[in-house]
Amino acid sequence: MSEATARTEDLTGTLVDYLVGAGSTRLDPAVDTEATHMILDLIGACVVASSPRYAAGRLLGAFVDAEGGAPRASVFGRPQRTSLANAALVNGTLGYYCDVEPHHPASVMHALAAVFPAAFAVGEAAARGGRAVLTATVIGVDVACRLSEALDPRALYARGFHPSAVAGAFGAAVAAGCLLDLDQVQWRNALGLASLQASGLLSWTSDHSEQSRPFNIGIAARNGVTAASLAALGFGGPTAVLEGKYDLFTAFSGVRRPARLTDGLGVRYATSALAVKRYSCCAFLHPGLDALTEILDRYGVTAGEITSIDFRFPRSGASVIDNNELRSHNAQYILAVAAVRRAITIDDILADQREDPEIARLARSVRVVHDDVLDARYPAEYSTVVSVATADGCRHEARVDHAKGTPQNRMTHDEVVAKYRAMTAGAADAAPVRTIADLALRLEAVDDVRALGDAIRALR
Q: What is the pTM of this model?
């Protein structure tokens, strides 16, 4: 039996059987530790994104102020609580705004940015403990990443869908459902209601404000919370969304890989395969940035000596980063900034640095090569080869298969904490920033996650 037809008779039922009671799962301590590191990293990105320096944070704050709602969940950058849906929407959007939060390379997913805001909102409203929120987050991220792989992220991209938004809505619904202790019927309804709301087009690639890009993740978080909350109240939904005439696979990708969703379910968790970013930009660019840095450091090359840069990337993903209108996803722009400044921050993707003539010159010198050989292992690997030519006639080359921060090239605990401190330095009041880090790193021992909400609301 082919992977496309295996176990499709009641795939929804298989998933529901697993999810009933999954919120009480006792995770392996190593999984707990990995997940808390990733949550800390995501929270650091949210702290920075909520700064009033940035338009998205200000506009989202104005939205929350105008909408009001029952004060049940905290929002980064605001002193008051708001509704569950609003909190999930805002925090999910902030989580992906800087494009520096954890991601899952193989499924091309920013799942944590959609799932943790959903889990945190529901957990805070219900005064749940940190362990329950942590477990719900791990399970939600896992289901989201598995679903993206089952749909095939390459097929989703080819149809113009954003995997993080489509599959992220399900992950958020799963995390919220775990905390709401849904039963068999409610789980089927929650997944069905998530499917009705699943959305997220790649049309944000033409939005130079960089605001609709993270908004895709925010709506996934909001829709997941809405789906689980309605299901908990007894609201009905389609009960078999992974099979039948109008199933999810047919609608979004035309690909069915059910084994990707079920194999190792409850044994292997995607949080253990998340990657930490060192640069504020598309994850596709990170191996190339590491390769460029290696060349500059090893051979002592300066930006002024560079005459051209070739950037070889797997063909299936290269179109996303080849002269993309968005700076965060534009290889020509990002490599030029990195060559001159040796860093990529949120300010580099929100404000065009090509006013610097050297950055403008180098951006014109970068060529993205859509590589068929490298494509063989994409998206499991974002293998990249960078070749730099210099004015003295030399050509230097470096290949990176796994960027620093990926599971194959991990950051240490100290490196993750150092990144959090560096990101948040000056972005908010120091005392709550420290408190947030302490609570996040020992989340499984926190009796009531409202303590984390208190610290978040005290940031400014």
A: 0.95
Check residue 344 and give its pLDDT. Answer: 96
Non-local (6+) Cβ contacts of 57 within 8 A are 49, 50, 51, 76, 77, 94, 97
Instruction: Report the first-to-last Cα separation within the chain, whole angstroms.
Output: 58
Instruction: Measure the CA–CA gap between 221 and 174, rounded to whole angstroms.
Output: 11
String of DSSP letters for 84-102: HHHHHHHHHHHHHHTS-S-
Whether residues 166 and 289 share a domain: the answer is no
Overall domain count for the chain? 2
Q: List residues bridging with 386 in a β-sheet.
A: 311, 398
pLDDT tens-digit map of 116-160 = 999 999 999 999 999 999 999 999 999 999 999 999 999 999 999
For the chain, helix (H) and strand (E) counts, in that order, are 20, 4
The whole domain housing 334 covers: 283-404
Instruction: State the CATH number of the domain containing residue 393.
Output: 3.30.1330.120
- 3-class secondary-structure state, position 314: strand
- Cα atoms in the Cβ-side hemisphere of radius 13 Å centred on 148: 31
- Let me know if residue 3 belongs to a domain: no
The interaxial angle of helices 84-97 and 163-179, nearest 10 deg, is 140
Cα(36)–Cα(117) distance, integer angstroms: 14
Residue 162: band (very low, low, confident or very high) from pLDDT cuts 50, 70, 90: very high
Q: How confident is the model at residue 115 (pLDDT cuts 50, 70, 90)?
A: very high
Please give the C-alpha separations between residue 19 and each of 57, 174, 182, 227, 296, in angstroms, as whole numbers.
34, 8, 9, 15, 49
The span from the CA of 399 to the CA of 134, in Å, is 36
In a domain, 416, yes or no: no
Residue range 339-365: average pLDDT? 96
**Cβ-proximal residues to 127 (8 Å cutoff; 6+ apart), any chain:** 448, 449, 450
